Amino acid sequence: MQTICVFGSSSESIDREFLDSAEHLGQTLAEKGKTVLFGAGRYGVMGAVSRGAKAAGGRIIGISPLFFKEMDVLADYADEIIFTETMRERKGIMEDESDAFIICAGGIGTFEEFFEVLTLKQLGRHSKPIIIYNYKGYYDELLAMMKASVEKNFMSDEVNKIYTVANTEEEVIEQLDNYKAFMYNKYN
Questions:
Q1: Alpha helices in the chain (DSSP H)
Q2: Cβ atoms within 10 A of the Cβ of 178, count?
Q3: Which of 37, 95, 153, 156 would staple 5 via disulfide (CB 3.0–4.6 Å)?
Q4: Strand pairing partners for 165?
Q5: Does 101 map to a domain?
Q6: Among candidates 106, 175, 183, which has minimal Cα distance to 142?
Q7: How many domains, in total, are found in the chain?
Q8: How would you write the pLDDT of the chain (188 residues) with one tens digit per residue?
Q9: CATH of the domain at 69
């Protein structure tokens, strides 16, 4: 797995620990020879991951809708920025060009990105790893919601097997290095 897509917050007002852990994750990915693909923003978790990767000599590729250029939020240090017309097109490129997805702490955009790659995997559109980086238990409530959805028969427990949860950076790397595809199609 060479190109790793990292989804995460674009907020700078979050606890500094999340930014520091994201920057270290980016550094570690670069040191392992991975290309980091991200949403091209210089702020928040995604900015921290990209800065960490860049500082460690890694390659970083940003995918951005053109209107982000006007908002002056882009990471001008990216090795490459691919511009799209829409957010939907942006996600499509991120999904197609990545070998794996790491879901770091984030808000509604990150949730939406996670659920899209999860839905696509459930429908058999890809078999790439999806790793929730549950740093400091950030995703505990989301994981409880996923469990409740199974208990109430809104989804199969098989869905909870097509992504993994890592509580530490070491677990993220271990899961990337030792990934074995588990495919589930809700219609089969």
A1: 16-31, 44-55, 66-71, 87-97, 108-122, 140-151, 169-177
A2: 8
A3: 37
A4: 132
A5: yes
A6: 106
A7: 1
A8: 899 999 999 999 999 999 999 999 999 999 999 999 999 999 999 999 999 999 999 999 999 999 998 888 999 999 999 999 999 999 999 999 999 999 999 999 999 999 999 999 999 899 999 999 999 999 999 999 999 999 999 999 999 999 999 999 999 999 999 999 877 667 76
A9: 3.40.50.450
- Residue 149 resides in a domain: yes
Tell me if 156 is assigned to some domain. yes
Q: Domain range holding 115?
A: 3-177
Q: Is residue 186 part of a domain?
A: no
| Cα 38 from Cα 173, distance rounded (Å) | 17
CA dihedral 4, 41, 93, 160 (to 10 degrees): 50
For position 120, what pLDDT does the model report?
94
Element (H, E) at 5: strand 3-7
Please, are residues 137 and 17 in contact by the beta-carbon 8 Å criterion? no
Joined tokens for residue 20: 């520091």
